[in-house]
């Protein structure tokens, strides 16, 4: 029985996916030669490809830049107060809204930053927050 289980597990996890994986690997290495990936440790490569999945939200707050706002403005204090009360999943949804991804890739957490900017609309009460994902700017009406 043990030999059967071992052979079955080997088939499911190795043999059955070998041919599709070789095709994927060949295409991947054509675009990204292996010599380029060897400079990364496995942990660095995982972060580079997958991104950070756990966050220090207070560090994120510390790294934010402000435009037409100051850190101590009431809107900003209210924003962070509400943000820090959100469950983890909602915070990741905000990150997706802001950047297009619920992960931070290609950065060290200490260097990831975004900007909160006042869009200076005529009637802020009739405007909703919106984001520029390319520029990492959150437009937050007063």
TrEMBL record:
The keyword Ligase applies. It is an enzyme of class 2 (transferase). One of its GO terms (molecular function) is ligase activity. One of its GO terms (biological process) is protein polyubiquitination. Pfam families: HECT. Residues 1-142 form the HECT domain. InterPro entries: E3A/B/C-like, HECT_dom, Hect_E3_ubiquitin_ligase. Gene3D superfamilies: Hect, E3 ligase catalytic domain, Hect, E3 ligase catalytic domains. The active site is at 134 (glycyl thioester intermediate). It catalyses: S-ubiquitinyl-[E2 ubiquitin-conjugating enzyme]-L-cysteine + [acceptor protein]-L-lysine = [E2 ubiquitin-conjugating enzyme]-L-cysteine + N(6)-ubiquitinyl-[acceptor protein]-L-lysine. PROSITE patterns: HECT. Coiled coil: none annotated. Its EC number is 2.3.2.26. Keywords: Ligase, Transferase, Ubl conjugation pathway. This is HECT-type E3 ubiquitin transferase. The lineage of its organism: Eukaryota, Metazoa, Chordata, Craniata, Vertebrata.
């Amino acid at each position: 029985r043990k030999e059967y289980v071992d052979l079955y597990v080997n088939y499911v996890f190795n043999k059955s996916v070998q041919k599709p994986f070789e095709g994927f690997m060949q295409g991947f290495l054509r675009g990204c030669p292996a010599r380029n990936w060897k400079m990364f440790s496995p942990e660095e490569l995982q972060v580079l490809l997958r991104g950070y999945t756990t966050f220090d939200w207070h560090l994120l707050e510390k790294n934010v830049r402000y435009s037409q706002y100051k850190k101590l403005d009431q809107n900003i204090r209210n924003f962070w107060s509400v943000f820090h009360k959100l469950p983890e999943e909602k915070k990741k949804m905000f990150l997706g809204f802001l950047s297009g991804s619920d992960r931070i890739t290609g950065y060290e957490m200490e260097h990831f930053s975004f900007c909160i900017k006042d869009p200076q609309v005529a009637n802020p009460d009739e405007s909703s927050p919106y984001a520029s994902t390319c520029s990492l700017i959150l437009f937050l009406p007063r």
